[in-house]
Amino acid sequence: SLFSLKGNLLQSAVHTVVSGWVVPSLLAFTYVNTVIFFNAIGSNLARPRAERDVFYALSSLLISVPIILVTWAEPLLCDNFLIRWGGHAVFDYTIPITSIAYFAFARTLPPRRLMEVKPA
């Protein structure tokens, strides 16, 4: 599996070579974060369908999507736009802010054990 120890070691070797010799330095940050993003999303998508519930969708919407958007926006917009808003700090603050938003909204929902699970 791509997410096993062997898969992780293989990915590590491949992405080290690609990021070191292929990806332009301007996009290295974006490349690394995109790899991390797709691994996180991939491992979530590999879950059985029955485990993908409202919390799964909520984490994608409130955490993953904003972080990947900022990951791509930072190298492309930092010097011309984001620098006025804190530059890299925009990315740094996106992670805790989106996590707090997720947990705040998730707290308003009934716990998983009380929610009815509908078969796929």
Describe this entry's structure for a reader.
By secondary structure, the chain is an all-alpha fold. Helices cover 65% and strands 0% of the residues. The two termini are 24 Å apart.
Secondary structure blueprint with pairings:
Elements: H1 5-21, H2 28-45, H3 54-77, H4 88-106
Helix pairs in contact: 2-3, 3-4
Give the gist of this structure.
The protein has 120 residues and is mainly α.
Task: Output the number of helix runs.
Answer: 4
The total beta strand count reads: 0
Instruction: Please state the average pLDDT score.
Output: 83
From the N-terminal CA to the C-terminal CA, the straight-line distance is: 24 Å
Largest sheet: none
Helix content: 55-70%
Label the structural class.
mainly alpha
Uncertain parts: none
Q: Can you give keywords for this protein?
A:
120 residues; mainly alpha; 4 helices
